[in-house]
Specification:
This protein is of the alpha/beta class. The chain folds into 2 domains: 106 residues, NAD(P)-binding Rossmann-like Domain (Rossmann fold, 3-Layer(aba) Sandwich); 174 residues, NAD(P)-binding Rossmann-like Domain (Rossmann fold, 3-Layer(aba) Sandwich), CATH 3.40.50.720. The protein has 13 helices and 12 strands. The N and C termini lie close together (11 Å). The mean pLDDT is 94. Belongs to the D-isomer specific 2-hydroxyacid dehydrogenase family. This is NAD(P)-dependent oxidoreductase.
Length: 342
């Protein structure tokens, strides 16, 4: 049995650790022909693989593939042909050709490969939003003022700044424990995030009409059946679904306006699921705080009013990009292939 992996730099520009990890996984089962193309190499798969008629397992990562190419792989039994770094579905013409030839065709079944990375990042944004960690880091570089916890005039007052208290009491702050965290979604990312904050002692509720009951139970989450009810008592509001035709604009201005004053909004999947104009308006009016990795405009212009605000934590859309997410991408593809004995 001959196994071949061919990877183009256009794939590795997005997933730089996938191909090598996939290679290692297959090498543990036996010999693998691993072909890494040079930048600018636009040869088709049939021109690259020298003995296509001997190949039985194939992974092609953003390499040009034609129907004529595949017809030369006479012994092929299993294949994954990835046309683009985000285009995990195989082109229909090629999928049909493989099906007619009796070849099992594989692709990514979901975006679960970055679920852990994004959900952990969401937890980090939540903690940063509660405790103002990025703001105090920045302030310390240019001033000693962050070290001064004395109340105004040196006179202690109820519910105001005091010894080692650096949180902003105008917004949700302090610990995750005890907070009412309301999540839109119960999928790969949202269910993990829910389990994290549940473990830390939060009161967690989630709305997701497509998720099964076990998704809520495993995450320790109370299921809310009505989206409009979810935000009414939210201290932390976390819209955490992927952006699709059905979810675009799911969280309307009416929903955002219903959030209690001081609520922390955490955005870590896609901004397009929310009415960002409404979020911007309430953030800029100091009505809510925001911890976000995704935005309505990317990159944010340097004069964007969200940047550097006392009630905003911002990162440049990198929640899902970890080496572990790359490894998971490879593993979730590799596990679909039949194991090969040494």
């Amino acid at each position: 049995m001959n196994s071949v992996i061919v990877v183009h730099p256009n794939f590795e520009a997005t997933w730089p650790w996938v191909a090598d990890h996939l290679h290692a996984l297959w090498q543990a089962q036996g010999p693998v022909e691993f072909i890494r193309l040079s930048p600018g190499d636009e040869r088709t798969l049939g021109e690259i693989v020298t003995k296509p008629d001997e190949v039985t397992r194939l992974v092609s990562l953003v390499v040009p593939v034609t129907a004529e190419c595949l017809q030369s792989f006479a012994q092929l039994r299993e294949a994954a042909i990835i046309a683009g770094p985000y285009q995990v579905r195989m082109p229909e013409e090629l999928a049909q050709l493989l099906k007619e030839a009796g070849v099992k065709a594989y692709t990514q079944l979901s975006e679960g490969f970055w679920g852990q990375s994004v959900s952990e990042f969401g937890l980090a944004l939540t903690l940063c939003g509660l405790r103002r960690i990025p703001q105090t880091y920045r302030e310390m570089i240019g001033s000693l003022a962050p070290w001064d916890y004395d109340p105004e005039g040196g006179v202690g007052r109820p519910h105001s700044r005091g010894e080692q208290f650096g949180d902003d009491a105008n917004f949700t702050n302090g610990t995750v424990a005890g907070k009412r965290i309301r999540i839109v979604g119960a999928g790969n990312i949202a269910s993990r995030y829910a389990s994290f904050v549940n473990m830390l002692g939060a009161d967690v509720a989630a709305w997701d009409p497509y998720a099964t009951e076990p998704s809520f139970h495993r995450a320790g989450t109370r299921r809310e059946h009505y989206l409009e009810q979810l935000m009414k008592d939210a201290e932390i509001f976390v819209p955490m679904v992927p952006l699709t035709e059905k979810t675009e604009g799911l969280i309307t201005a009416e929903h955002i306006n219903a959030l209690p004053k001081g609520c922390l909004v955490v955005l870590v999947t896609r901004a397009g699921i929310c009415d960002m104009d409404a979020i911007r308006r309430r953030v800029l009016n100091d009505e809510i705080s925001l911890a976000a990795d995704v935005f309505d405009v990317e990159p944010l212009e340097l004069d964007d009013p969200l940047l550097g605000r006392h009630n905003v934590v911002h990162t440049p859309h990198n929640a899902g990009r970890t080496i572990e997410a790359n490894y998971s991408w490879a593993e979730k593809l590799a596990e679909q292939f039949l194991p090969v004995s040494n």
